[in-house]
Amino acid sequence: MDSNKAEYKRLGDYIREVDVRNRDLKVTNLLGLSMTKQFRPSTSNIVGVDLSKYKIVHKDVFAFDTMSVIRVHKVPIAMNLSKSPIIVSPVYITFECKDANILNPKYLMMWFSRDEFDRYADFKSDAAVRGGYNWKELCDTPIYLPPIEQQQKIVSEYEAVTHRIHLNEQIIAKLEETAQALYRKMFVDEIDKEHLPEGWRIGTLGEIAEISSGKTCKDKSEQQIGTYQWAVAGASGIIGYTPTYNQDGNFITTGRVGTLGVVNRYDGKVFCADNVLIIKSIHYEYCYQILRSIDYKELAKGGVQSLITQTDLKNVEALLADEQTLKLFEKQVSCISSQVRLKKQENIKLTELQSLLLAKMGK
Prior knowledge:
alpha+beta
């Protein structure tokens, strides 16, 4: 981080710890912290747990997990933007800005979202005698603190971009719903498997799709920097970037091991990791809808670890309509998919703009 003493302040002079316990058990919404610096549904088993000891997080209050920094090289930290209070683990540190007219809470959350902040915290964790990045280290963190008017301007610019991304995500969801509704109308809801139209039959996904596995990516970065220009497709989506690629063109991926049921489509040069299965077909849109309708838990049932093989996926039952019907479906849905692709490309650019705005905060 820049060490300009005239511009940087000690964060601890502007924040204070708060410790409000859920003693009357009125708050029941228990959340955890994600690596994306957001609150997420808790995965903890709370059967028999005394929730009165858990901490309440009101609006504009932050929660901070000190235990994970040295392990995941990111600071799990989030601010409650909702008017509704939530509860978090009592091991989390909860804190707030002392004066929102001096340090805007949303500006502070933006500061915590910077890659530079995570790198700083990671460095401090490694340098600490006991290891870790706790409340003291957080308070000693330098923060660039412009006048409150400038903070608000920075926040407004960032929120405008964020709002556009969310709007695009809503449009994408509606388009995907439209494509799925068309698929169900043509191939599910009005189909009697015992009396199929002429030229139709029950077959398998492997008859209309080529299915293969990804490879181990030995050279990967979480950031798109320098020669690391090709996306790495993992079971949950993009997990980093690499200087090489092993797939090109239109194809679909779904998780092979670990994260199951996430179906993604790609167009262009991508490195597919070893935890995904790759699906290619001239009936691209039709296969995509079939893959989205599979019960992956049932498909992976029986093993110690959640695992789907190429053979499992190839043997998935598929309704094989006549070629003319499949071509008609591809033509209709391709128009919808083109709009989805454009919105996703726009969101990639907007996300890059978000990163640029965050990087500029310290300059």
